[in-house]
């Protein structure tokens, strides 16, 4: 089986690449290295084909059985800085969709739980998103387009709404990294964690290993559609700080600042029923185990990102 991973030098993408190689796939990666880093592939670089480029150039990699599309600008501030990226993300997605139809490839693509911003939890796939941000404005049309390509041309696809993904090897994302990684890094550096507002915002923390499993399960499933990838449990930023501090055995310093981001996501917490029943996807790693594993990894680095 041949797989393509767009954004394969990124946090989630590089972990998908690693698992695919373990399962015997032949893997090609396309990544523009905007937030990703080839260091994320350093132990497996000689086992894959790598092309530096935009996801729109996917055809240059030849035929594949399955495409994992994660090569999309990955954070809200990136789109706020350049909102024309909304159009580019959608246009590149259409190139990926056309590629999949031409090559009869199944598509598994990254969507986001940010799509639920403004709705009370638990968040279920049936709600009609109220778009509150440029980042979300780029994701919602992708989901609709995938469904349209299914209706028109028989595309086989799963769009995965990731919740708050954390784990090892997130250092290339720097300020865009998950709150858990940022707390660990600040704790290791003995510096203050900046908290927007009172720290009551809640996130459904899902470990990278479970996210990779969701991708593999989706790629083999006969189901099509949009699926949540979360645990169903949420933690406030304050609770995360307490948890990470407890695992590290130290008090993490914090500084509360006014939230500079309008329409910041207040709470995300997955309704996991559909992904359990239709895909058979169950998370296996709880927050304590996942945070400990991430911490063990970050301790092996010579230095962790010193952000802000
Ligand atoms: N990490 C999370 O908590 C989370 C939550 C919801 C959704 N997502 C989505 O999952 C995907 C992967 O996120 P991640 O956390 O691994 O972030 P990441 O920034 O590490 O990964 C994105 C990768 O894609 C590359 N890239 C960006 N735009 C590209 C383009 N136009 N063409 C080719 N490559 C491009 C980047 O260089 C990077 O390697 C993103 O689409 C992100 O929005 C992530």
UniProtKB/TrEMBL annotation:
The residue ranges of the NAD-dependent epimerase/dehydratase domain are 4-230
Q: What InterPro entries does the annotation carry?
A: Epimerase_deHydtase, Lipid_A_modif_metabolic_enz, NAD(P)-bd_dom_sf
A single Pfam family it belongs to is Epimerase
Q: Which Gene3D superfamilies match?
A: NAD(P)-binding Rossmann-like Domain, UDP-galactose 4-epimerase, domain 1
Matching SUPFAM superfamilies, A to Z? Answer: NAD(P)-binding Rossmann-fold domains
The protein's name is: NAD-dependent epimerase/dehydratase
Q: Which organism is it from?
A: Candidatus Parvarchaeum acidiphilum ARMAN-4
């Amino acid at each position: 089986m041949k797989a393509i991973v767009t954004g394969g030098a990124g946090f989630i993408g590089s972990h998908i690449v690693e698992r695919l190689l373990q399962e015997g796939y032949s893997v090609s990666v396309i990544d523009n290295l905007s937030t990703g880093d080839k260091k994320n592939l350093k132990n497996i670089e000689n086992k894959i084909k790598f092309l530096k480029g935009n996801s729109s150039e996917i055809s240059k990699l030849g035929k594949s059985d399955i495409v994992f599309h994660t090569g999309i600008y990955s954070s809200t501030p990136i789109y706020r800085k350049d909102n024309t990226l909304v159009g580019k993300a959608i246009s590149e997605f259409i190139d990926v969709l056309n590629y999949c139809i031409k090559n009869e490839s199944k598509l598994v693509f990254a969507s986001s739980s940010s799509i639920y911003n403004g709705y009370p939890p638990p968040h279920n796939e049936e709600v009609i998103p109220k778009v509150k941000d440029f980042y979300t404005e780029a994701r919602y049309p992708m989901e609709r387009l995938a469904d349209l390509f299914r209706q028109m041309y028989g595309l086989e696809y799963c769009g995965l709404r990731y919740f708050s993904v954390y784990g090892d090897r997130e250092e290339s994302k720097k300020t865009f990294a998950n709150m858990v990684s940022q707390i660990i890094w600040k704790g290791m550096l003995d510096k203050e964690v900046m908290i927007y507002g009172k720290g009551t915002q809640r996130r459904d923390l899902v470990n990278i290993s479970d996210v990779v499993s969701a991708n593999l399960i989706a790629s083999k499933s006969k189901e099509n559609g949009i699926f949540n990838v979360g645990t169903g449990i949420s933690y406030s930023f304050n609770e995360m700080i307490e948890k990470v501090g407890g695992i590290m055995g130290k008090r993490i310093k914090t500084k509360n600042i006014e939230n500079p981001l309008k329409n910041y996501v207040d709470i995300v917490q997955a309704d996991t029923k559909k992904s359990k029943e239709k895909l058979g996807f169950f998370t296996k790693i709880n927050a304590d185990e996942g945070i400990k594993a991430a911490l063990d990894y970050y301790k092996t680095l010579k230095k962790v990102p010193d952000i802000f």
